[in-house]
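[User] Could I get a sequence and structure tokens?

[Assistant]
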Amino acid sequence: MARTSRQRIILHIGTPKTGTSYVQRGLFDNRAQLSQQGICVPLSGADPYALETDEPVIVHNQLAWAIAESRPISGFSRNEIIESWPKIIAEIRSSRCHTAIITSEVFYWEMDTLDQIEQIKSQLAEFDVFVWVYWRDPAEFCESMYLQAVKDWDYSDSLGEFIAENIERFMLLRRLKKWGRVFGTKSMLIRYYDPLLRVKTFGDYMKPLSVTGINEPFPVTFSQNKSLPEGFLEVFKALSINGLQEAKEQLRSSIWLVDRAREKILSVGERALIHAFLSPHYPAIPEPDRHSALPQKAHPENNGDQ
């Protein structure tokens, strides 16, 4: 009798600002090499605009927006976006690869209900799914997301306002527990991202999959953070002392200025206050050797008769 096994899905959900674009560019550049090792990087459900840039990336935002329904995708009807799910499943089935990678940080940033995550599980019911997520220092995460909002989303309010609007998104464990409840805690692959020490190359990201012979998409560069304006201490004292609603109100009344925030600086004391409030909502930092590999799976074409 021929030996059969379910295909495996690595669902890379972010978090944002943990090198996700670098991973997605590496997946684009290494599609052929990964396919030869039994790993499919499907194009169905990928953002077509991201594939057409000078530095193309594979990011499956259409799949995420089909469920999140937070905003339309320019140039696509709602039905076209919804159809991205059956299309990617058909592509994975026909690939004859033992593993497929689906990647979009929108899964983390926009999926805040059990119902949304259950919909993803339902779409992927025929596969063994592992939810792969990187997280970073909470102060750096808040700062980096805000700066992107100012730069790319025309966000014009203060950092305090931004954090108040997105405070639930910055409580990592609270959100990931929902994913673990749906997919099972043993299916959660949680890794720590340190741009200067732990994860430097596309090869480092791919270590859990035990792949070889991959190419680096482009050199990795890092910037040094600088300080944010006064008023920060008072606001995060409110976060650590008061309840969530009171903290949000305090954040909205803060005097931080967008032009000062662009300087990208957080002082030691300011970081300490962010950590005091957010660190209980983050996993402990793992040791570097905790980047354990997933169990290797034989390529379906190599499965023999038993």
Remarks:
- Residues 8-297 form a domain with the Rossmann fold fold (CATH 3.40.50).
- The beta strands are 8-14, 39-40, 99-103, 128-135, 188-192.
- Residues 138-152 form the longest helix (15 residues).
- The CA atoms of residues 86 and 118 lie 16 Å apart.
